[in-house]
Amino acid sequence: MVGTRGHDVGTMEPQELAEKMKEFGAEAVQLVAYKAIRGVSSKPGAMDAETAAGIRKAFEEQGIRVSIVGSYFNLLERPEELESDVQRFKEYLKFAKDLGGSLVGTETGSYDAEWKFHPENHTEAAFEKAAAVIGELVRTGEAVGVQVGIEGAYDHVVYSPEKMAELIERIPSDNLRVVFDPVSFLHKANYREADRMIDEAFRLFGDRIALVHAKDFVLEGDGIKRVPIGQGLMDYDRLCGKIKGLGREVDIIVEELTGDELRESLFFLKKRMSDI
Fold it and tell me: What is the pTM of this model?
């Protein structure tokens, strides 16, 4: 199924959000409740079973699947912030099934407070710190029967497919899964190697991919600029072929697009997946 992040459509009541997503053609949602659902705080203790069930019902009525519950936080942040965010993540693991999901996700973060690149992100010390937090989350996930999805990005701690494979080797639990965002692994120096990177990712951990994030890009100035899907350099025939080759259903979530660009991107991906 192909969908989008709820908060890219807006922040509103669950029923209204689900209806709007359906109008765009979304079949699935990445649900970050505290960004997408009006009145839900990002602080621990904001979610409960009754609220979660109401949200699930709204999406079920529109035939939209909750592909992933987002509780993104910076695994390298200060201890007092980390404690609060870990608590919130564990709460979303607890209520994920009530929300209609079975996967809760986060990125690995940065020593930079705005999540930008920091040279220490790619050190072994940063990896050890992030892996320790992820291991704790995975153990909680195992206890409640919910998977933990980790998303890599070049600017962060898990900065390459090889580093993701190292994390999986470090935490050999079936409850650890991958949210694969190929564009997030790219930068000015390696964007020409996108095809090789995709092939390597599916070779290393294709069996662990639970969700794929979809973006497209062109090179502009000193960096990569995001563009609507199908209008950039990403080879979606290759990526969609790899997804189909897994032999199981893996949802694709469009990121950072709204309006007509979102609608067109969802249509593009549905057609690509059906044509392969």
Answer: 0.97
